[in-house]
UniProtKB/TrEMBL annotation:
Lineage, uppermost ranks: Bacteria, Pseudomonadati, Bacteroidota, Sphingobacteriia, Sphingobacteriales
Transmembrane among keywords: yes
Chain segments annotated as transmembrane: 14-35, 92-112
Species of provenance: Pseudopedobacter saltans (strain ATCC 51119 / DSM 12145 / JCM 21818 / CCUG 39354 / LMG 10337 / NBRC 100064 / NCIMB 13643) (Pedobacter saltans)
Protein name: Serine protease
Keyword annotations: Membrane, Transmembrane, Transmembrane helix
Gene3D superfamilies the UniProt entry points to: Nucleic acid-binding proteins
Domain of life per record: Bacteria
Length: 191
C-alpha cells in the first residue's frame, strides 16, 4: 500500500485524498437517509434581517452539504476512472466537473421524485362528509353534547367528536356524516 501511494503523482494523491473521505461521508448520508435519520435542513441560522424574494420556498436547494458531497464524489471518481484513458489533467478536471454536476442533478431528481411519494400527514376533515362512521362513545340527542366516532379519512382511521340533531345514537351504531362545524365537530345522522 505504501509503495502504491508513494508511486502516485501529486495530482493523483490530491484526487484520492478528496475522493475517499467524500465516499465515506456519502455512504453515511445514504444509510441515514434510508433509515430516516437524515434532516431536511442542512443548516439552521438565526437571522433578524428581512429578505425579499419572489421565489418562495424551494424544497431542494442547489448549494447544500449533500450536493457538495455528491459533486465531489462524481468529480473524484470520474477522474480516477478515466485517469488511465485520458492523460491530460485539464481534460480530466473538466470531465470530473461535468460528472460531478450530473451526479448532483441525478441525486436531486431522485430525491424530488421520492418526495412526491411522501404524505404530508395533514387531514382535511371535510373529506368525512357523506362517509359512514361507527359510534364509539354515545352521541347525546339534539346537540346536547358530543360523542365520538371512528371514521376512515384519507386512508387513516380517526377518532373524532360528533353531534346529532336527532335522538341519541348509542355506541356501536353506524352514522353518516352530513356536515362539519367550525370547531371540526362532525354533524351526523343515523345511517
Amino acid at each position: 500500500m505504501n509503495e502504491w501511494w508513494n508511486a502516485l503523482e501529486v495530482f493523483d494523491k490530491v484526487i484520492w485524498i478528496i475522493t475517499v473521505p467524500v465516499s465515506v461521508v456519502f455512504i453515511i448520508q445514504m444509510v441515514f437517509t434510508f433509515l430516516g435519520m437524515d434532516s431536511n435542513d442542512d443548516l439552521n441560522v438565526d437571522f433578524d434581517g428581512d429578505l425579499d424574494s419572489d421565489v418562495g420556498h424551494v424544497p431542494f436547494q442547489l448549494f447544500t452539504f449533500r450536493n457538495f458531497i455528491n459533486f465531489l464524489l462524481g468529480f473524484g471518481w470520474a477522474i480516477i476512472s478515466f485517469k488511465s484513458i485520458i492523460e491530460n489533467q485539464g481534460i480530466l478536471i473538466l470531465l470530473g466537473i461535468a460528472v460531478g454536476c450530473l451526479l448532483v442533478a441525478a441525486v436531486m431528481y431522485i430525491f424530488i421524485s421520492m418526495n412526491k411519494f411522501a404524505q404530508s400527514g395533514n387531514m382535511d376533515i371535510r373529506n368525512s362528509i357523506n362517509r359512514t362512521a361507527q359510534v364509539y362513545l354515545t352521541i347525546p340527542a339534539k346537540k346536547s353534547g358530543t360523542g365520538k366516532v371512528h371514521i376512515n379519512i384519507q386512508g387513516t382511521l380517526r377518532e373524532l367528536d360528533a353531534i346529532t340533531l336527532g335522538e341519541s345514537i348509542p355506541s356501536g351504531n353506524y352514522v353518516k356524516v352530513v356536515d362539519v362545524s367550525q370547531n371540526n365537530i362532525l354533524l351526523v345522522i343515523s345511517a
